[in-house]
Amino acid sequence: MNEVLVGAAKAEVDKKGFLDLELDPELDLFAEIERLKKQKNAIVLAHYYQEPDIQDVADYIGDSLGLAQKAEATNADMIVFAGVHFMAETAKILNPTKKVVIPDLLAGCSLSDSCPPPLFEQFKKQYPDHLVISYINCSAGIKALSDIICTSSNAQKIVESLPPEQKIIFAPDKNLGAYINKVTGRNMVLWNGACMVHEIFSVEKITKLKMRHSNAKVIAHPECEEPVLRLADFIGSTTQLLKYSMTDSSNEYIVATETGILHQMMKSSPQKTFIPAPPNNSCACNDCPHMKRNTLEKIYLCMEYETPEIMMDEELRLAAKKPIDKMLELSAQFGL
Ligand code: 13P
Ligand code: SF4
């Protein structure tokens, strides 16, 4: 298996993924991925929500901001993006001449899907004197309609950098937007979008868990709903949650975000206990079904066959790049 797929075969994989290919179960995927990295001058970027094996094979693991910064700075010829579509798309927007492949083209995002560009365009027209700040978890179409992109690592600082009288629309996450309104005292107009994973946590079950683990601290991602955030001892992006768990003096944490982050938390602080915050039903709903579409097998296949590849219309790319560049410029000023 060493030929690059072309033409109709590539188009088929781009549409459906590698459904029909069976891999030799004896294949050492870790070794094969390392071989392909060297052979193709490829870099594997992974979000903290990826499964542990993928995190372990990645060259860089990070939150949305770190991943965008790394994608912009890399000298690799091929970026293998182990994350969801909007993240790989952001890497392509920043790196039009590089090949950006994603292990599963169907790895989407419920938050991004909750904000379709045609509806948002109509919404925006109601507020002609407002600046648009959009969370990076959105499509290129929404980015192109925005003035500044933010992530959960820099949203507060970006909003605070604007004059207090500046009117703002914040999209697409109403929970992150409400949290930023609360901590900055602003009154941003919020798009009514949310992440299916971060809305699943049960206040009742977290409260009971806290009673049983009285020394445990609750740490939460700002995509969670307000009642969950009210229970939190610390609120931050995935990177901020990880750093907090490493530097804080407690030994036990209830973690209200996607479970993938626990891998790095346990690796960095093996002596500490990390408990995933329970969802409000009995399923494993705090695993993001989109992030978890990616597997080590699919990473290997997308590197070997150089597909599915992220392709973009140049006009859209240029329009979407402007607010991302603004975010990267501001983040550098903030020392992030
Ligand atoms: P961060 O990576 O910015 O913490 O965001 C989490 C997330 O939901 C990514 O999809
Ligand atoms: Fe989207 Fe939520 Fe999954 Fe992040 S965790 S990719 S916001 S659905």
Q: What features would you describe in this structure?
A:
This protein is of the alpha/beta class and 336 residues long. Helix 5 crosses helix 16 and helix 13 packs parallel to helix 14. Strands 2-1-3-4 form a 4-stranded parallel sheet, with helices on both faces. It is globular. The longest helix is centred in the last third of the chain and has 21 residues. 44% of the residues lie in helices and 14% in strands. The chain has 16 helices and 12 strands.
Would you spell out the secondary-structure blueprint of this structure?
Elements: H1 7-16, H2 29-40, E1 42-47, H3 52-57, E2 60-62, H4 64-73, E3 78-82, H5 85-94, E4 99-101, H6 110-113, H7 117-125, E5 131-135, H8 140-144, E6 148-150, H9 155-160, E7 168-171, H10 174-184, E8 189-190, H11 203-212, E9 217-220, H12 226-230, E10 234-235, H13 238-247, E11 252-256, H14 261-268, E12 273-276, H15 296-305, H16 314-334
Parallel strand pairs: 1-2, 1-3, 3-4, 5-6, 5-7, 7-8, 9-10, 9-11, 11-12
Helix pairs in contact: 2-15, 4-5, 5-16, 13-14
This protein binds 1,3-dihydroxyacetonephosphate (13P) and iron/sulfur cluster.
Shape category: globular
Bound molecules: 1,3-dihydroxyacetonephosphate, iron/sulfur cluster
Regions with little confidence, pLDDT below 50 for 5+ residues: none
Through-space gap between termini: 42 Å
The secondary structure category is alpha/beta
What's the domain count?
A: 3
CATH superfamily of the largest domain: NadA-like
CATH architecture of the largest domain: 3-Layer(aba) Sandwich
